[in-house]
C-alpha cells in the first residue's frame, strides 16, 4: 500500500487503520506483543503526527492494557496535534469521565464548529433536557442546513415549540421531506394544507407529500377531494420526470391502510392499478396484486383491487370466485353475501356462485333464504 514520493511515504489510511487495529493485542496477549505494538505505534506517531488513526490506535492500546490515564494523555496530545479531526475529539470524549468530556467537546467546538457529530455528542453529554435544547440551538446557529440537527432539536420540544422550530427548519432545509411532513402533522387542518402546498412547490418530485395531503382531506371528511389529489399527484409527478413505480405506490397504499386512511388507500389502488400493465396481462397481474395485498394483511387494498378488476371484467366468473373466496376467508358473512348477490347478477349462468350464496345463508341457519336463492338460480 505504500509508494514513495520524494522520500515521503504515502499510505492508504483506511487499510492502514485496520492494520494498526489488528496489531493491538487484547488483554490476554503476550506482554512482548504489547511492547512491540507500543514501539510500532510510537514510531508511527513520531513520523506522522498529523495522522489521527495512529493516535486513536495508541490510546486504545493503552486502554486495552488497563492504562486509562496514559490513553487519555495520548489522545489529548493527538487532539493538540490535529485540532480539526472529528474522530480524535470524539474518541477523547469517550475516554474521559463525563465532566471532563464536556470540557473536551466544548474545546473541540472552537476548532470545528461545523461538525454535526461533535454537536450531537455535546447534546448527549448533557443530562437535562433544557441544557440539550440549548446545545442544539447553538449548533443550529453554526449549521442551519443540517437536517439531522433539526430533527434532534425538534424531538426535545413540546408540540407548540416544535411547530415554531419546524417552521424555521423548513426555511433552512426546504428539500427535507421529513421536516415538511412533521410540520404538517402538528398544524391545524387549514395550516397543514398550506404547509403541504408549500412543500410541493419546494419538492415537486416526492409522492409522500401528495399522499399526506390526500390523507389530510380524508381525515377531515372531504372524501371527494382524495381521488382528485391522487390523480393530480400521478400526472404532476410524471410531468416532473418522476418514474411512476407501481410497486412503490402499492406499498404506499398498504401503509396508508395501516394508518387508517381507507379511502385514500382505495384511491391510490384505483389510480395506479392499470399503470404499465399490458392489455392482455391485466387480469393475471391484478389477481397477483390482490394476493400480495392479502398476504401482507392489507385487506382493504386487496378489496380495492378486486373491485377494480370486477368493474373492468364484470362477466369474468373466475374473478368473482376469487373475490368471493377472499371475502369468505377474510370478510364477514354480510360482505360475502353482498358480493355474491352482485356476482350472480353479472354471471347468472355460474352454478358455483349461486351455490356459495345458498350455502352461506344455510350455514347461518337461514334455510328459507337459501331455498329462495336456489329457486332464483333455476330461473
Key descriptive features of the protein:
379 residues; 4 domains; Serine Threonine Protein Phosphatase 5, Tetratricopeptide repeat; 75% helix; two-stranded antiparallel sheet; mainly alpha
Low-confidence stretches: none
Q: Quickly count the helices.
A: 22
Number of domains: 4
Could you give the order of the helices and strands? EEHHHHHHHHHHHHHHHHHHHHHH
Helix content: over 70%
Strand % is under 5%
In total, the number of strands is 2
End-to-end separation: 88 Å
Question: What order do the strands of the largest sheet run in, or round the barrel if closed?
Answer: 1-2
- Strand count, sense and closure of the main sheet? 2 strands, antiparallel
Q: Shape from CA axes?
A: elongated
Structural class: mainly alpha
Amino acid at each position: 500500500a505504500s509508494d514513495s514520493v520524494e522520500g515521503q511515504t504515502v499510505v492508504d489510511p483506511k487499510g492502514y487503520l485496520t492494520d494498526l487495529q489488528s496489531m493491538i493485542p487484547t488483554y490476554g496477549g503476550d506482554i512482548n506483543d504489547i511492547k512491540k505494538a507500543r514501539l510500532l505505534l510510537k514510531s508511527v506517531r513520531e513520523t506522522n503526527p498529523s495522522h489521527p488513526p495512529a493516535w486513536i490506535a495508541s490510546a486504545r492500546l493503552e486502554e486495552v492494557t488497563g492504562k486509562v490515564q496514559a490513553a487519555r494523555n495520548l489522545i489529548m496530545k493527538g487532539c493538540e496535534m490535529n485540532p480539526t479531526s472529528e474522530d480524535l475529539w470524539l474518541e477523547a470524549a469517550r475516554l474521559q469521565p463525563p465532566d471532563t468530556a464536556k470540557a473536551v467537546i466544548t474545546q473541540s467546538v472552537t476548532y470545528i464548529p461545523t461538525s454535526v457529530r461533535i454537536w450531537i455528542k455535546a447534546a448527549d453529554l448533557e443530562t437535562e433536557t433544557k441544557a440539550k435544547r440549548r446545545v442544539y440551538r447553538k449548533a443550529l446557529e453554526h449549521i442551519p442546513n443540517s437536517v439531522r440537527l433539526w430533527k434532534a432539536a425538534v424531538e426535545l420540544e413540546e408540540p407548540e415549540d416544535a411547530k415554531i422550530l419546524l417552521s424555521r427548519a423548513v426555511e433552512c432545509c426546504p428539500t427535507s421531506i421529513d421536516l415538511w411532513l412533521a410540520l404538517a402533522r402538528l398544524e391545524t387542518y387549514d395550516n397543514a394544507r398550506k404547509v403541504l402546498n408549500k412543500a410541493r412547490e419546494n419538492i415537486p418530485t416526492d409522492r409522500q407529500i401528495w399522499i399526506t395531503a390526500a390523507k389530510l382531506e380524508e381525515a377531515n371528511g372531504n372524501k371527494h377531494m382524495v381521488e382528485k389529489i391522487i390523480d393530480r399527484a400521478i400526472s404532476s409527478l410524471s410531468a416532473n420526470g418522476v418514474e411512476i413505480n407501481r410497486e412503490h405506490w402499492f406499498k404506499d397504499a398498504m401503509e396508508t391502510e395501516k394508518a387508517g386512511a381507507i379511502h385514500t388507500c382505495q384511491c391510490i389502488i384505483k389510480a395506479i392499478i392499470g399503470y404499465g400493465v399490458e392489455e392482455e396481462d391485466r387480469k393475471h397481474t391484478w389477481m397477483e396484486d390482490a394476493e400480495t395485498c392479502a398476504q401482507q394483511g392489507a385487506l382493504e387494498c386487496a378489496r380495492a383491487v378486486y373491485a377494480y378488476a370486477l368493474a373492468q371484467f364484470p362477466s369474468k366468473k373466475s374473478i368473482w370466485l376469487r373475490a368471493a373466496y377472499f371475502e369468505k376467508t377474510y370478510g364477514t358473512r354480510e360482505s360475502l353475501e353482498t358480493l355474491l348477490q352482485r356476482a350472480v347478477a353479472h354471471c347468472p349462468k355460474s352454478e358455483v356462485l349461486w351455490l356459495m350464496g345458498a350455502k352461506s345463508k344455510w350455514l347461518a341457519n337461514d334455510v328459507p333464504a337459501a331455498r329462495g336463492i336456489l329457486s332464483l338460480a333455476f330461473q
